[in-house]
Amino acid sequence: MEIQTMNKLEKEALKKSGTDFTRLGFALFFMIGVLTFSFLSNGGISNNMFLAVAALIGAYMAMNIGANDVANNVGPAVGSKAMTLTTAIIIAAIFEAAGAIIAGGEVVKTIKKGIIDISAFGGNADPFIWAMMAALLAAALWLNFATMVRAPVSTTHSIVGGVMGAGIAAAGFSIVSWSTMGKIAASWVISPVLGGVIAAAFLFSIKKSIVFKDDKVKAAKRYVPIFVAIMSWAFVTYITLKGLKKIWPQVVELLNMIPFVAIEMTNKPSLSTALTLGFVIAVMVYFFVKAKVSSNTTKLENTKASVNTLFTIPLIFAAALLSFAHGANDVANAIGPLAAINDAVVNGGVSSKAAIPLWVMGVGALGIALGLALYGPTLIKTVGSEITELDQIRAFSIAMAASITVIIASQLGLPVSSTHIAIGGVFGVGFLREWLHLNDMGRTLEDDKQSIIDERENLHAFSAELKTLEAKNSKSQADYERVVELYKQIAYEEKQIKSAKKSIKHAKKVEFVKRDAIKKIVTAWVVTVPATATLAAILFYMIKGIMI
After folding, report:
1. Could you give the dihedral angle defined by the CA atoms of residues 374, 336, 159 and 317, in that order, rounded to the nearest 10 degrees?
2. Element of type H or E holding 108
3. Between the CA of residue 102 and those of 34, 122, 156, what are the distances in Å?
4. Of the candidates 100, 183, 229, 319, which lies 20 to 30 Å from 89 by C-alpha distance?
5. 68-97 burial, b if ≥16 CB within 10 A, otherwise e?
6. Could you tell me the residue ranges of all domains in the chain?
7. Is 443 exposed, middle or buried (0-12, 13-18, 19+ CB in 10 A)?
C-alpha cells in the first residue's frame, strides 16, 4: 500500500513539474521572440539592443499583469460556477487583447499618474531610460512574487512604486509629487471600502427583493430584469468612460450614422453622454430580459439555486466587459514605460507623452493574454473561491460594484484601484453573509441563553435538594431513590447547559470570510508601493553601474 502511494505521489509530482516546465517554455519563447523582433526591426537605431531588452522586460511585465490582475475580472464568475475556468480564460484573453489593441490608444503618458517630474532629468535621455527600465522590471518582479504567494495586488500601484523608486534614485526625493502619492495611499482604503459597501448593498437588495420572498419565481420575474438593466446601464457608462475614451471620436462618428442619433463631437465622452447612452441600452435590455425571464419562469423551481441561474449570462457579459475595459486602461502599465524608452531611444530626448508603435501595443496585448492563460488560474481560484464562497448572485453584486465604484470615484476625483475594488467587493459580500447569518441566529441565541438561565435554576434547585437529603442521618427507601433521581437530573441539566453554550460559541465562530486571506492580501497591498520602489532603486543603480 505504501509503495502504491509513493508511486502515485511521484507521478503527480512529475506531472506538475512537466506542466510547470511547459508554461515556462511558452513564456520564455514569447519573451525571446519579442527580444528578437525588437532587435531586428530597430536595427538602424543606436542603442537598439537596449530597446530590445526593454521590450523583453515589457513582455515579462505584460504577462505578469495577465497572471495577477485579470483574475479580478473573471474570478467571481468562475467561483460562482457561472462559467468554467477554461471558458473564463478564453473570454478574458480575447477581450483583454481587444481592449488593449482597439481602445488602448495611440499615445500614453510615459509617467503613470504624474508621480514624478520628468524635467528633473534635464532632457538627459540615458538616466531616464535606465529609470523606466528599472521601474518596469521592479513592478514585473513584484507581480510575479505576488502571484506565486496568491496575493492579488494592484498593477497600477506596482508600476507607480517602481517609477517613484527609480525616479528618486535618479534625481532625488524632490522629483516625486508627494501629494499624488498621498492620494494613491488613500486609495488603499477608499477602493476596497467603496467596492465592499456597494457590493454588499446590491447583494442585500437582491436578497430582500427576491431570495427572501416566499414566491421567489414571481419576485424574480419582476426584479431580475430591473437588476440586469441597472447592470447594463452601469457597464455601458463604465465602458464608455474608461474603455472607449481613447477612440471616442471614431465612436461618435459611428453612432451619428444611426438615424435620429446626434452626439456632439468631443475628444472624450462626458458623464452625461455616457449615462444617456447607458440608459438607452438599459431600457432595451430590460424589455429583452423581461421577455426571456417570463418565458422561462415555468421551468424555474421556487428555490434560491434556481433563481441564481438567471444571473449566469449577465455575469459572463460582465466578465467580458470588465476584461475589455481593463485591457484598454491597464495595458499602459506594461507598455507606458516601454513606449517612453522607445521614444527616448528613437528621438534621443525625454517626453511626458509618447506615441505607441503597433508592435509595442502588440507586446502588451499578447503578453496580458498569454500571462492569463499560463499563470492566471492561480489567482482566479484565489479570488473566486478562497476568500469567501460565491454564487451567481454574489458574483453579480461584485461585478456591479466594480463598475459603479469606478464611475463614482472618477467623477469625484478619487484615486481607486480596480484590483482593490474587486477584492473589496468579495470581502463585502462575505461580511454581509456573516451579518445575515448572525441575524438569523439571533432568535436561536436568545432561546439558548434563556435555556441556560432556566437550566441553571433547575440545577441549583436539584443540588440544594440533594444536599438536604444527603445531610439526613437516616434515609428511607424513597430518599435513596430520590437521591439517585436527583443525580440523574443534575447530570441531564449540566449536559443541557453545556450543549447550549456550545451552540452559542459555534454561532459566534461562524466566519464566511477567511481571515488569513484578508491579512495576506491587505499586507500585500500596503507593501506594494514601498517594495517596488525599493527594488526599482536598487535595479536603477545596478543598470547605471553596468552602463557607466
Report:
1. -50
2. strand 107-109
3. 21, 35, 20
4. 229
5. bbbbbbbbbbbbbbbbebeebbebbbebbb
6. 3-215+302-438+513-547
7. exposed
Contact 417, 336 (CB under 8 A): no
Distance of CA 485 to the CA centre of its chain: 62
- Locate cell 463604465: which residue? 238
Backbone angles phi, psi at 116, to 5 degrees: -130, 155
Local confidence band at 165 (pLDDT 50, 70, 90 cut-offs): very high
Distance CA(417)–CA(183), nearest Å, equals: 12
Mean pLDDT for the stretch of residues 396-415: 82
The distance between the two most distant Cα atoms of the chain, rounded to a whole number of Å, is 117
- 93-104: average pLDDT: 80
Which positions ≥6 away from 142 have C-beta within 8 Å?
Answer: 153, 158, 161, 162, 528, 531, 532, 535
Give dist(CA 416, CA 316) in Å, integer.
24
| 155 three-state secondary structure | helix
Query: Among 327-341, 405-419, 443-457, whose mean pLDDT is lowest?
Result: 443-457
Is the separation of the CB atoms in 366 and 104 below 8 Å?
no
Give CA–CA dist 71/88, Å, rounded: 9
Bridge partners of residue 116, in order along the sequence: 176
Please enumerate in sequence order all residues whose Cβ is within 8 A of that of 61, keeping only pairs 6 or more positions apart, or say none: 136, 137, 139, 140, 143, 159, 333, 334, 367
With pLDDT > 70 as the criterion, what percentage of the chain qualifies?
88
Predicted local confidence at residue 136, as pLDDT: 92
Q: How far apart are CA 39 and CA 34, in angstroms?
A: 8
Count of alpha carbons within 13 Å of 487, Cβ hemisphere only? 7
Tell me the pLDDT tens digit for each residue of 249-307.
888 888 778 776 777 777 788 888 889 989 999 999 999 999 888 887 667 888 888 88
Output the pLDDT for position 45.
Answer: 75
| Cβ(417)–Cβ(157) below 8 Å | yes
Q: Give the C-alpha separation, 310 to 321, whole Å.
A: 19
pLDDT value at residue 547: 80
